[in-house]
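Worked example 3 (structure in, sequence out).
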């Protein structure tokens, strides 16, 4: 239970927030700022709140969410802005608000607790803690009055408060016992018996393939999440093991998502998930981490399937991020809300009447058929008291277009996008997170070589410069997690280090810039020093000296984002192969061995760990390019090295802190040359980019070509 802090007038002057605001007014998080004027006397997560709960002997009500969370907004309007609810909280609990994107380490502990208690989790996360921060009851969204089997929030508060006073000793004893259960769940035991093996990878692929939806694409049940780690692993597995079925599953998924309403058919970029199996109706919030990972997925799908539409989706997704989520100095903002003007999806949806009023008769006919616009619509607005009616989410319902209609479609998109631009946009969460920026850094770097696109390389370099200037402390060699409104926090997280490391390695491979490689090596060493467990393997989610966590955690679950351990292991394997650092590859291998039982028992929970484990099974092909990084011929060879799909490949130059063996490889006849090397054995060098691509295709052939399938998304005759 929680009782928000006492009214500001009862607090010491130094701790009192401004008039008509609670303590969140001083926080930088946009989510916490949304709640800064609630009548609930919120505390931010930290020592002041904990001390207050202990001093007053009150339980804590912990509410975790994020700024673009629709149901977080709903619970705020219904309960946290209600004076009666706020008064009860303020008298009987210490209330704490946490932005789960700022503190995923805090969220992970209490989300695991609620999932164990209630059988499911989600946001808003509502947890009741003892003053020593141990959870004893929790759930997610609670309505203002009892309905659908959920207790009304005020009723729940009253019940918890009563139980706390009547049965406090019993509650604290139960919380202590549950704490021990939580500790076992969050700290994996070292692997015994069979560790990593090709059999484990094969079994994991088989389990993931069983989750495939053959009718609509994607993996798992509704709500349908893209979860790019699953198709990324299956693509790597299918290519290496010549499994055409696995590759076709990925191809079908990419086609279905790109044709659905989860993809913004006008402005590019993906929403967080779809509420139906057909990817038709999204939950409209757009997250940086989704779009970074999906850009990467579509780049890989393009290389593996050679479908031009996949490259176009990657371009449009990146263009969305660069247009709508970019800080002028090169960082990337976190997300855009699902709601605008208090209505979910209002910014993105259309009525038939709106379409007809904006387009000419010829354009209307094409738009209505192509996007599947109907008088009834396909999205139901549930907002009160005046829901919007007959809304259409645009998706590709009928892709068959003549060349003339394809030209008309370009005009239609431009017209509708301009009209949408005059609407009130959803809220943008403008905090900049190291972890999500690292994911986007990697996508931009790869796109610069795969598409190829020099603008993406410029954006990637600017992003790394932003991270180094605003989030990396050179004096202490620490990478902090959040920057917002001119200030960074003091939180270090494995996910931030690992994602920025992974992105920086990708930037090095796309540019051969020795400075990027030097930073990657410094970051990797610091990550190992701060997070690695040398005795048992694996990386802690937070440094062990983090003062405000009740448990140390080694995260292995790949949710919408890859786990820090998966990102760290894969990045260290790649960096170790580039720099000849066996200490990095050994740490990655020991980490994967620790989680081998998880991969064997429940591979669906950790597809990105499977991807890292698959990479570790064989030494990667090394493409060593001898030549000045800025030379046009060197650039052409870099692009050729990235033009062929290969699940196990690294690209490196011959200068800077690379493997000493690479430094011995010369140019050819005074011209840049590329060597395909396995260990210390290399093929005849190639100065012709086409020849290099041919060598790569011969070395990593993949499955036999499938019968051509018409691209159902691209305009055709």
């Amino acid at each position: 239970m929680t009782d928000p802090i006492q009214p500001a007038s009862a607090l010491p002057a130094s701790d009192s927030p401004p008039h008509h605001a609670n303590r969140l007014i001083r926080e930088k998080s946009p989510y916490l700022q949304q709640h800064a004027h609630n009548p609930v006397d919120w505390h931010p997560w930290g020592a002041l709140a904990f001390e207050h709960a202990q001093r007053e002997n009150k339980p804590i009500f912990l509410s975790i969410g994020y700024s673009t969370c629709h149901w977080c907004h709903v619970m705020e309007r219904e309960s946290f802005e209600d004076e009666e609810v706020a008064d009860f909280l303020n008298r009987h609990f210490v209330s704490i608000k946490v932005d789960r994107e700022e503190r995923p380490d805090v969220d992970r502990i209490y989300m695991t607790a609620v999932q164990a208690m209630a059988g499911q989790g989600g946001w808003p996360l509502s947890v009741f803690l003892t003053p020593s921060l141990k959870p004893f009851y929790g759930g997610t969204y609670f309505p203002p009055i009892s309905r659908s089997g959920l207790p009304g929030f005020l009723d729940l508060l009253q019940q918890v408060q009563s139980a706390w006073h009547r049965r406090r000793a019993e509650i604290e004893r139960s919380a202590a016992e549950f704490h021990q259960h939580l500790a076992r769940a969050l700290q994996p035991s070292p692997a015994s018996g069979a560790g990593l093996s090709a059999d484990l990878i094969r079994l994991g692929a088989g389990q993931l393939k069983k989750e495939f939806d053959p009718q609509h694409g994607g993996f798992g049940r509704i709500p349908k999440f893209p979860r790019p780690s699953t198709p990324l692993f299956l693509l790597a597995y299918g290519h290496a093991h010549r499994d055409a079925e696995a590759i076709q599953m990925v191809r079908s998924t990419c086609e279905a998502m790109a044709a659905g309403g989860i993809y913004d058919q006008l402005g590019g970029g993906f929403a967080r998930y779809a509420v139906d199996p057909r990817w038709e109706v999204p939950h409209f919030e757009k997250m940086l981490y989704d779009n970074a990972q999906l850009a990467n997925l579509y780049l890989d799908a393009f290389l593996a399937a050679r479908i031009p539409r996949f490259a176009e989706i990657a371009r449009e997704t990146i263009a969305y991020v660069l247009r709508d989520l970019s800080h002028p100095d090169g960082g990337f903002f976190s997300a855009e809300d699902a709601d605008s003007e208090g209505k979910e999806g209002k910014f993105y949806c259309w009525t038939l009447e709106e379409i007809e009023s904006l387009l000419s008769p010829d354009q209307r006919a094409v738009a209505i058929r192509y996007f599947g616009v109907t008088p009834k619509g396909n999205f139901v607005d549930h907002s009160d008291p005046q829901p919007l009616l007959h809304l259409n989410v645009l998706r590709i319902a009928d892709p068959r277009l003549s060349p003339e209609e394809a030209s008309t479609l370009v005009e239609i998109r431009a017209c509708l996008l301009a009209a949408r631009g005059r609407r009130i946009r959803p809220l943008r969460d403008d905090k900049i997170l190291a972890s999500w920026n690292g994911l986007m850094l990697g996508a931009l770097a790869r796109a610069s070589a795969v598409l190829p696109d020099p603008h993406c390389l410029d954006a990637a370099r600017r992003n790394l410069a932003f991270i180094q200037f605003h989030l990396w402390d050179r004096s202490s060699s620490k990478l902090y997690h959040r920057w917002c409104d001119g200030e960074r926090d003091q939180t270090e997280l494995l996910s931030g280090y690992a994602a920025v490391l992974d992105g920086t390695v990708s930037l090095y491979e796309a540019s051969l810039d020795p400075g990027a490689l030097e930073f990657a090596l410094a970051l990797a060493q610091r990550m190992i020093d701060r997070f690695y467990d040398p005795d048992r393997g694996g990386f802690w989610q937070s440094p062990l000296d983090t003062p405000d966590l009740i448990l140390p955690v080694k995260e292995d679950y790949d949710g919408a984002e890859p786990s820090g351990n998966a990102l760290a292991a894969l990045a260290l394997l790649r960096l170790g192969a580039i720099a000849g650092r066996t200490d990095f590859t050994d740490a990655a291998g020991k980490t994967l061995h620790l989680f081998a039982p998880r991969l064997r028992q429940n591979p669906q929970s950790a597809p990105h760990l499977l991807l890292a484990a698959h990479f570790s099974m064989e030494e990667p092909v090394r493409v060593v390019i001898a030549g000045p990084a800025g030379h046009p011929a060197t650039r052409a060879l870099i692009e050729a090295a990235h033009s062929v799909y290969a699940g196990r490949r690294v690209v490196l130059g011959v200068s800077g802190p690379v493997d000493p063996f690479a430094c011995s490889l010369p140019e050819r006849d005074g011209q840049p040359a590329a060597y395909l090397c396995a260990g210390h054995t290399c093929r005849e060098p190639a100065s012709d980019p086409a020849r290099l691509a041919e060598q790569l295709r011969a070395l990593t052939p993949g499955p036999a070509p499938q019968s051509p399938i018409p691209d159902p998304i691209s305009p055709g005759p």
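Notes: The chain has four domains: 8-186, 198-334+431-616, 339-425, 621-699. Residues 621-699 form a domain with the Glutaredoxin fold (CATH 3.40.30).
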